[in-house]
Structure formats: structure tokens, C-alpha cells
Amino acid sequence: MPKEPIDPAGIAWSRVSPKYITVRLIGWAAATLVGTAVLSVPLVLTLSGIWPAFPLWLAWLLPALELAVALWRGALIPRQTRAIGYAERDDDLLIRGGIFFQRVMVVPYGRMQYVDVAVGPLERAFGLASIKLHTASPATIAALPGLPEAEAARLREQLSARGQARLAGL
What we know:
The protein is of the alpha+beta class. Helices cover about 45% and strands about 25% of the residues. Helix 1 (about 20-40) packs antiparallel against helix 3 and helix 2 (about 40-45) runs antiparallel to helix 3 (about 55-80).
């Protein structure tokens, strides 16, 4: 991947699992179905004559716009997922993400309070897990989704050990 303008120089990024694309697409499809169904209610009520005062053009426009926006979001999911990465350095963990609005977060090991590994039912079905890093600042929670379960467990132990070592050195 070409170097992005906000990436620190000389970093070899580790990527999340490609299976995470499927997990996100399944969530996207479910949300799209629910959103389209809800926004189709005026259309169904108008066409059935129950709500004749509602403008027919607006009744068609609502689900059409929902589908157009959903298709755009769905098309971006694979690229957004491939943009997520992390890198372990001697003193901190870097987490990157984003296509249009890129972000690189630096989490110093000594500032980590605890590392949380979470697995939802869909992630479990694909053998994935998510890590959340809670820092000394209550407002800062760094998330790293879509990791293989073994990598998430390894990273949890590694980050916890490094955090304890840095904290002991203070």
C-alpha cells in the first residue's frame, strides 16, 4: 500500500482479517433491509389507499434514496476495512483507519489502563474478535476490530505486559 500523508515513516502496518469485510457486509445488509422496510411504509400505505394524502413521489423517493445511500456505503466497506491497520512499536501502538477522513492514533503503552477483547455472535462465527484499549483518559478508547481470535489474544497479552512494564517504570 502506498504511504499516506499522515503515516509515520518506516511503519510496517498489520492489517485486520479479510473475513471482517464479510462481517461488515452482513451487518450492512441487515441495516439496509431494516432501513428500506421502514422507509417503504409510506409507499405501501399510499399505494394501498390508507394514506392517500401522502405525496406519491415522496413515498417512492424515500426508499430509493435509502437504497442509493446504502449501495454507496456498501461499496465502500471493502476499502474501509482494508484501510484499518495497526503497528506495534517499542513504546506505543499505532492504529490507523479511514479512506476520506484518515486517522492515525498513537496509544502509549504506559497510558493503557486495560485491554478489552470482545467477540459478538457474527464475529465468533468467522473466528474474529475486537480489541478496545482503555487509556488513562476516560475519553480515549481505541478500537481495533476484525482481528483473528488468536491474534487478538496474543495482542491482549502483549499489550498488557508492555503496559505493566511501562507503568512499573514510572
